[in-house]
Specification:
There is one protein chain. The longest helix is centred in the N-terminal third of the chain and has 4 residues. It contains one helix and 29 strands. It has three domains: 99 residues, Type VI secretion system, lipoprotein SciN (Immunoglobulin-like, Sandwich), CATH 2.60.40; 109 residues, Immunoglobulin-like (Sandwich), CATH 2.60.40; 95 residues, Sandwich (Immunoglobulin-like), CATH 2.60.40.3820. Strand 17 and strand 18 form a beta hairpin. The N and C termini lie close together (9 Å).
Length: 370
Amino acid sequence: MYRRAILAAVPLLAGCSAFSGGDERTTTETAPTATRSPTPALPLTASDPASTLETARGIDVRNGRSETVFTTVVVEDGDRTVYSASGTVGRDETWRHENLVARPGIYRVVVETETGERTVHGWVVGEQWGSRNLVARLVTGAVTTRQYGICSPDCPPMRAEGESVPLPRESRTDPGQEVSGAVTLENAREQTAPVSLRVATGDETLVDYRYQVPPGVRAIVPVARTDGVYDLAVSGPDRRLERRWHVPEEPFPQFRVGVDGVASDCEFGQTRITGVRNSGGSTRTVGVAVQSGDRTGESETVALSPDESRSLGLAVAPGPTTLSVFVDGTERLTAGWTICPGGPLRVIVVDGTVFVRNDGRVVASAFAGG
């Protein structure tokens, strides 16, 4: 029995805020012995005081490795280095570089370790890009950053141009409804990449925009507060994708521009059905089956006592995906995606009622007796 996916509240979109990205891991703030090169007076400010941000932005380097790491942080404004520092960051410590920039703009940030791992990030500083510091994480074998901005459809100072209706498009029957469909555009390259987004429904084009997305940045475009099926096209430097986009079944599809062009997140192998839990009061036999893209279908069946969880390893490939859940031999839920669900997914069974969750958000459900 088919059940539509149910969109749960997403504070990021509901509040139209932006953030640089953090985690809940506790780290110790540290001020390591550092070497700083001569730089202009900081924080950088705009020539027009009215354009200067009230809160200057900085950079936090968090060491999640099991050893101390010698790290260099460089911030460039065009061809000028505005900040450079090197220092040792202890295990589980955070090295803070405060009050660097209060002038809206895009700055090139390079964070590199003495063993050669590095990341290049196009640091977007502006009101629509949050007031938190940019976070660089030192993880095993890599340095990572991420930054989000809300584009409705513009999000200065990131360059963008095109045509659009007022976004997100309001529901005619329920004005003020929370955003039910938004598209994320991410640049995973080391240089700024042009990314085009077009969304239409019937004869109406909702947005037809071209963005110059800096490296490491994720631009979130809230498109609609209305459920429905949309024609979606995303183009990068080397590839164009066209999809039928089902909302709310696929509420927040993500597209990434990598070395091989633009692809949806599941094409990077990030989406898996990772586990199943019986949260009810009776022992249940739960079967989970997935058919996606051109891949042969996979399934696993487990017997679960009350409050028992079990890990699964079912992968989701690019393309149309169907997920089916069976409880005690009876099919209780079938959910489908055209692009791909965001992952990882977990299946929760509560006395015959089935929920499919992604990061705590319910993306599909079927109720007992429904």
